[in-house]
Amino acid sequence: MRPPRVLLVDDEPDLLELLELDMLRLGLDSARASSVHQALEWLARQTFELCLTDMRLPDGDGLEIVRHIAAHVPHTPVAVITAFGSTENAVVALKAGAFDYVEKPVTPEKVRSLVRSALKLPEAGAQTRGAWRLVGGSAAMHQVRGLIDKVARSQAPVFISGATGTGKEVAARLIHAQGPRAEGPFVAVNCGAIPENLMESEFFGYRKGAFTGADADRDGFFQAAQGGTLFLDEVVDLPLAMQVKLLRALQEKQVRRVGGVSEEAVDVRLVSASHQDLQSAVRAGRFRHDLFYRLNVIGLHMPALRERPEDVAELSQYLLERLAGPRGPRLGPAALAALERYDFPGNVRELENMLERALALTEGEWIQADDLNITPDPQAAGEADPTGTERGGSDLQDYLDRVERQAIQAALARTGHNKTAAARLLGVTFRSLRYRLERLGID
């Protein structure tokens, strides 16, 4: 088999020669082009496993090459070389379909890291590792899966929006599993569950003796995700002081441990998510404008379950098989009809909890409508707000706190104040529930 070929595009002969030497050291063939026109001629004649192009060329813009490859040979990753500090150009290139970017000065270390990541890319549509799936044949889910296939092949930061329980972490895991970092770790972090005074040490690690109880060096989330993907769920909950530190870590690709004197390089892909509107948080001054643009290079929205009722039957069958096996109870016609009429404020997570409860209650081969214990949503039926306050007449955060407090208290009541069982019922970790109990002042 022939070695992989790389197309190198730059109008500086010295840089082209250095890049060609780097390719030789990596055991790769390469072809040179000094203009957009020459690059497009090469692409018309030969197949390449990677293209590395400068942004500024004599007869045009490197983005022309990025867009041409995305349209005609989408399985070929393309990376761009940008001037130092030109973050805006890098973001534009990533949105146009670039796999990654490298800033000048271009060093052999930067090039080798980029090439190794690019040439590990799987074929589009390759089987996803593990059991993570987004189930449903609706147009909305086809669109989501198509976008995941596309963004998984790049290194661009992705922000996943959507209501609680829509599958944001599943989407993040699919992006990781279908990309070049699939062999690396996937580290998921719930930003809303970390006490503010521990955030820096949790994210960046600490040195022995940095504070009382620091008996040994410890890695943070960034070090744990080295070579893989760091998923920041509910990133809007980060306090402003931590947002500044996160922005610097993303810009410099380096972190300093608490109690450390030097910085260490980190190589992670960042995927973030929140059920809150990120732009609204920016306008309200709760989220930094510059960090917003760093995280929201590519946006992915997870649709609510009520927006795709045609998926309820397939999704229910999938969840039942996962919970009870292929020979477990099945939904009766009346039960399925009841689910398809239901609004699902808790989305897929609520459906899973509902089916798990029904499996515990049913005694035969079929789950009946009564086993589902579906309670009509009082607000959907036009009744009064259960919090006692109209949603539009109070501060949004106060309203959300009241709804969250009510849901937690109801779960605790149903489980006899067993916090572990309540956390499972709510679809959160025990640690997250404990943090929320403290934040909301629930004894």
What does this structure look like?
This protein has 443 residues and is an alpha/beta fold. It is 44% helix and 14% strand. Strands 2-1-3-6-7 form a five-stranded parallel beta sheet, sandwiched between helices. A hairpin with a 2-residue loop joins strand 4 and strand 5 (60-61). Helix 2 runs parallel beside helix 3 and helix 17 packs across helix 18. The N and C termini lie far apart (67 Å).
Give the biggest sheet: 5 strands, parallel
Total DSSP E strands: 16
State the helical fraction: 40-55%
Sheet with the most strands: spatial strand order: 2-1-3-6-7
Q: Characterize the overall form.
A: globular
Number of domains: 4
Q: What's the CATH C level of the largest domain?
A: Alpha Beta
The CATH superfamily of the largest domain appears as P-loop containing nucleotide triphosphate hydrolases
Quote the CATH topology of the largest domain: Rossmann fold
Instruction: Give the uncertain stretches in residue-range form.
Output: 122-131, 377-394
Total of helices: 19
Hey, roughly how much beta strand do the residues contain?
5-15%
Which class of secondary structure composition applies to the elements? alpha/beta
Average pLDDT works out at: 84
Can you tell me the CATH architecture of the largest domain?
3-Layer(aba) Sandwich
Q: Determine Rg (CA atoms, Å).
A: 25 Å
N-end to C-end Cα span: 67 Å
